[in-house]
Amino acid sequence: MINAIQWLEQGIYVENATPSNMLRNLAEKLHPVKTQFDLIRIGSAHDGGYLLPNDLVGIRACFSPGVADNSNFEQDLFLKAGIESHLADFSVQGPPAGFVPKSFLKKYLGSVNNDT
Fold first, then answer.
1. Would you tell me how many other CB atoms lie within 10 Å of the CB of residue 2?
2. 17-53: string of b/e by CB count within 10 Å (b at 16+)?
3. How far apart, in whole angstroms, are the C-alpha atoms of residue 43 and residue 49?
4. Which of 45, 53, 69, 100 can bridge 37 by disulfide, Cβ–Cβ 3.0-4.6 Å?
5. Residue 92 gets which letter from DSSP?
6. Which pTM value belongs to this model?
């Protein structure tokens, strides 16, 4: 019989499902909110690009877990706003080619603290 520690070591997690009415209530609360800031695109036009409020003054660092082989967002963020990025991703050997982050950690971000 496998105990809970062995399950965790194998990456198996057992959790209660969230009731569907709670998920519906959350979904009803999620919607765009207009602020005094216009949105700007940072990164590429597709995957690797995001819309952000044009309010980057005072932001000194970006933390990006799970970058894979795409750092368009982090590179553009540095070029446009001078914001350096800290990257983490166990699935790749290092930061994407052509981009030098402030730091790179070869780890996944997750709920378990181990070598990966």
1. 9
2. eeeeeeeeeeeeeeeeeeeeeeeeebbeeeebeeebe
3. 4
4. 53
5. S
6. 0.70
* 73: Cβ contacts below 8 Å, ≥ 6 apart: 42, 43, 44, 48, 49, 50, 64
Find where tokens 């216009």 sit. 38
Count the alpha carbons within 13 Å of 95 in the hemisphere toward its beta carbon: 17
Per-residue pLDDT tens digits of the chain, which is 116 residues long: 566 667 777 777 777 788 999 999 999 999 888 899 999 999 999 888 999 999 999 999 999 988 888 899 999 999 999 999 999 999 999 888 888 899 999 998 888 888 88
